[in-house]
Specification:
about 15% strand, about 50% helix, four-stranded mixed beta sheet, alpha/beta, 13 helices, six-stranded mixed beta sheet, 2-enoyl-CoA Hydratase, Chain A, domain 1
């Protein structure tokens, strides 16, 4: 297996060259800590290099796809230049490795997808989402700029008006609404998410591999052209990790109360 050394991703080889990747920390709803963030960033290079894999399917163990960033990780990053610089590099790897992976990626969004989970869920070439799943980019609620993938991807998927609304407010979107506005490829009842994703993956694996991969490469040039937008948003997100709002945002989320951001308290 070319996937040795992963602690929070579980791999299963299936027929037709399909590999099923499961984010496997259900006790924490597959929340992203430093280890998982790094694994989600580098796994796509391994998928691309794996000659026996034609298609990758990614899902989450339990009832969540990935429930956002681990708050302990957020607090370890806040104000720490070295950690922030490392995260900026890794964040870029995650986005560009998904974009540059020549194999098709199918996401099976079986539950809530926030933070780094949303990056992979929505950057996947085909996304199958539970009707009752909740998808969101909650960066502004944490007190940091929306970096990750949002600025590069959301306007292409759902248009600028919807992207502005959801990224500026941090509101969540149901899978049913996400399909309606074009955020995901299709939405189905929760119990059908993984079977449908695997059905699509099998069809892709049986298709003309060069035709499919080169079509993906051409389509992803829309994202490559928006690379400077992503680079700027990622830098702004990391810059806000060095300010005071993120500490208040993390504390408010942990304490389940409205935040009182220093930047919103007046002069």
């Amino acid at each position: 297996m070319p996937y040795d050394g992963y602690a929070q991703l579980r791999f299963e080889r299936r027929d037709n060259g399909v590999v099923l990747i499961t984010i496997d920390n259900p006790e924490k709803y597959n929340a992203t800590d430093e280890q998982l963030h790094g694994e989600l960033a580098r796994v796509w290079r391994d998928v691309a290099a794996d000659e026996t894999t034609r298609v990758a399917v990614i899902t989450g163990a339990g009832r969540a796809f990935s429930a956002g960033g681990d708050l302990d990780m957020v607090q370890r990053m806040a104000g720490n230049h070295d950690r922030v610089a490392h995260m900026l590099h890794e964040m870029s790897d995650m986005v560009y490795n998904v974009i540059n992976c020549d194999k098709p990626i199918v996401s099976a969004i079986n539950g809530v997808a926030v933070g780094a989970g949303t990056v992979v869920a929505l950057l996947a070439d085909i996304s199958v989402c539970a009707l009752d799943a909740n998808i969101g980019d909650g960066h502004v609620r944490l007190g940091v700029a929306a970096g990750d993938h949002a600025a590069i991807l959301w306007p292409l998927l759902c248009g600028m008006a919807k992207a502005r609304y959801y990224l500026l407010t941090g509101e969540m979107i149901t899978g049913e609404e996400a399909e309606r506005i074009g955020m995901v490829s299709k939405a189905v009842p929760r119990e059908q998410v993984l079977p449908e994703a695997l059905r699509v993956a099998d069809a892709l694996a049986a298709g003309s591999q060069l035709a499919i991969r080169w079509t993906k490469r051409s389509l992803n040039n829309w994202l490559r052209m928006a690379g400077p937008v992503f680079d700027q948003s990622a830098a702004y997100e990391m810059l806000t990790f060095l300010g005071p709002d993120v500490l208040e945002g993390a504390a408010a989320l942990r304490e389940k109360r409205p935040p009182r951001f220093p930047s919103a308290q007046g002069v």
